[in-house]
Amino acid sequence: MLEPRGRVEVLTNHVTSEGDRFPGKTYAEVVLQPAYDQAKAELLEPMMAVNKAHLIMLHEQRLVSEGDAALIARALRDLDLAGLRSSTYTGQFEDLFFQVEHELMALAGEAAGNLHLGRSRNDMGIAIYRIVLRDKLLQTIDSSLFLLEKLLRFAADHTDTVMIGYTHTQHAQPTTLGHYIAGVADSLGRDIRRLMAAYGNCNRSSMGAAALTTSGFPISRERVAVLLAFDGLIENSYDAVSGADYVGEIAAGVQLAAIGLGRFVQELLLWCTQEFAVLRVAAPYVQVSSIMPQKRNPVSIEHMRSLLSSCVGTSQTVLTMMHNTPFGDIVDTEDDMQPYAWKSLSTLESVYRLLGHVIATLEINRELLRSRAENSFATVTELADTLVRTQGLSFRTAHGIVSRVVKKVSEQGGSAQSVSLKLLKETAVEVSGRELSLTEEELRQALNPAYFVEVRKLMGGPNPQEVLRALTGQEQRLSEQRAWLIEKRNGMIKGQEQVELILASWLV
Fold this sequence. Notes:
Blueprint lengths: L3 H15 L6 H36 L5 H13 L2 H6 L9 H13 L12 H37 L4 E6 L2 E7 H26 L18 H7 L9 H6 L2 H28 L6 E2 L18 H24 L15 H23 L2 E2 L1 H9 L5 H12 L3 H17 L9 H12 L7 H7 L2 H7 L8 H43 L2
Antiparallel strand pairs: 1-2, 3-4
Helix pairs in contact: 2-3, 2-6, 2-8, 2-19, 3-5, 6-7, 6-12, 6-19, 7-10, 7-19, 10-11, 10-12, 11-12, 14-15, 15-16
């Protein structure tokens, strides 16, 4: 066992190798340098936007003089952003914020010190994170609308493409490919609405909360929010710097979207198999084997599946890092966590774009889909329904008759098309003791998958006209969501232009 003196010597040597001043070598390597690089790439522009908006408010509230405001504005204009983006972390400053503050003071002198009046790193940092997230959210929503458009167009083209629908992975009932894809589009539509709702909670200003209790200076929180194109304030100042649910809500929305889309992507992969042979992926999105000349590997869809899984994981990381943390300003929900939210949004956005292009170029084997529906037992629910409508049987009795018929025909290797009127009538007598008056024409109609689809015209059903009606509603919602997106982006542009015009007027 080491003597106490030996242990002290080991620790002393370790401290010496780390340095005796902030930041320690390993701390800088593990935490500060990665955070600095992320800040250069993602946070510099919104940091400057916050500086400019805060400066305008301070001047309007007469908290900085006209001369000082002009000096600071000129410094903000002359700051070497390109140099900052290409810089490396040296440890001279704790992070990018303090480096920017130092360079502004070098340009504007003591006047630049008043730029921090009435604010804190806390409220400023949260505002910056929210600006970054809202931009990434809008980009993701934009790409989701692109995918939605492609799905709706695809569904409209296939309202009469009859296919078998599955429950519990087994043949269930005839439907259409358009009906199926319209369902996928409805699911995507809910994902989009969740992301839009998350945007509404994200796009709120923390500025003016300062450290956590606001400020004794008569600043205008509302004015800064307007200049930064926020939709409003996070009113409670403690909540403004402590609440992390805005990013958690985004992560949850992204995670649910990725899970839902992954289910659809998995089905596409299944349908690509030669056993299913339902769809053919266009040449730009397949790869060949290095050894097997016949292969057309739908790797674009495979990559989407794995990317969506990674998206679920990075989203879960956000939620996990928030779990059991104190309600206050903490690093857990800031520099270390935010990149996972960015990555999850970026991944989902890229999959939306790629899937949209793949969907737009798919080739569908319509004839095979129809043939499979015709040569299955998927239509026999309608046969039971027909017996109820035309013969006055209860559904349970009709179900029993048809079930026994299916069993007899299956044992002989037949399909629904093999069901004869003679067999049906004989079985009806066996099950119910009743003679059927059903005609051959009524039997064949009941077993026709196209008829099955046609008569299911209730709201949400696969009837082609009903699907087109539903798609029209989805198209209208898509149009409204695009208008919302344009409005939000134009609001940001307008706010930025207003800020630049005000600052430019001081420098004339």
